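Suppose you are handed a protein chain with no further information: no name, no annotation, nothing but its sequence. What can you learn? This example shows the usual starting point.
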Amino acid sequence: MNIWMCENMWLWKIITLFSIAIAKAGEMENEIEISGDLKQLIKRITPGFEENLVRAFKNEGLRYQQSTNNNRNINKLDSVFISVDDTKIELANLKFPWTPDFRIIKLSADLSMLCLDVAFKLGDLRTEGDYEATNMTLQRLLPITSNGRIETTFRDVVIRGKVGLLIEGDSFVPENYDIEYESTETSISVKYYVNNQTEIENNVVRAKEDDIIGSAIWKQLKAILTRILHKQLGESVVQFSITELLEDEDKELREKAKEYTSKANRLVDSLLCSAKDYLVAKSFRSIETPPFNVVYRGKLSEVYQGRLHTGVGYIQDLSTLSRMQDLSFYEDKQKLIVFGSLSLREMKHGYEHFRSQYENIQVSGSIKTTIYENRIFIKFSVLKDQDQHCKTCISAVEVRWLRDIDVDASGLGSLSWLVPKLEAWVVGNLRYTALPVLESYIKEAFEDALAKTNCTALVFQ
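A reasonable first move is to predict its three-dimensional structure. Written in structure tokens, the prediction is:
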């Protein structure tokens, strides 16, 4: 009797495990399906849609170039501050005074997944501005700085990736950009004067991954290019009526679009809730950022130099990390990708204490900065394998957009003429030393959330 019961218990366990395996396999194969009729319709209309989209994109590019050339459009970049060992480099008055030409390598549509596959060639892109370099060790012996003009050229720039389409009314709207920028190498040219009359020019070419100066400028340049691409692509795509394109058979695609959005939002909202709990529990609503110090002069011709240094900085409030718009979603047999943007609803940065000395003047105070617009790109990958298992990981966390930044400094007193310089220093250090710290904390919080969340159930239920 006992032997019979044991055999049946083992049989029951085998049946149970087999049932669970079948259920998991069913979950894994539960990709969003569309009807055969819609598949055939999309297959038939896609070539014409792509051809017309390419034509519209080129026309918008010409129109944009003409309007910007007439208005002499110049894209300005925030100042860049780089610290290498004891050398400080400041790049100021940076400009990208060119209108990029997005030459199409690939512009195809996957309407069933509401995505565009894109690849554009931009060629060489150049920024220009002023530089000032200071060696802090040398400063203790001689008050010497080097300054002049700088041009940074990124060679053979190419954009590749996917653009997620959302449906608004009767139009597609390109909203989420999972794109990568590639460049073969960076060329840096500096010009400065010797004996107040002889101009010297030096050039250096480096591989992109080895170029510290180019990498610092590259972050802002990518944001400018994405903004221009978004405008040009948006003006092109919005020309097409979804109802007319799908020959009045658009109901199913609209329902699938809602389903895609629901899956993407459900996954990220669940992870976001858990990540915010982690940040609050760890007292990471406010995080520390590195201090900075600079050497400055009132004018280039002045003899006296001043110094300013801050204490440890901060960024807050990480508990206000939120999803402000719908995310995008695409899937194939190997993986499922969710991508889009989050934002800190309340983003502040500052330094509780700074001190500055210029000639016989010493001042101290605090710096408070409010960032009113910010976008943080996130990307989650759900990888599938042949054993019907899912592994979810966070593939990217990147602060891609900052705008409307207000810097308020107290305590400058008679050095109030430093305000424009101080604003540039704070924003420059925010971009290149503080934001990487913020990104690392957000990634850490999401990794903790992934360890606690059944992502398979959220995505495939």
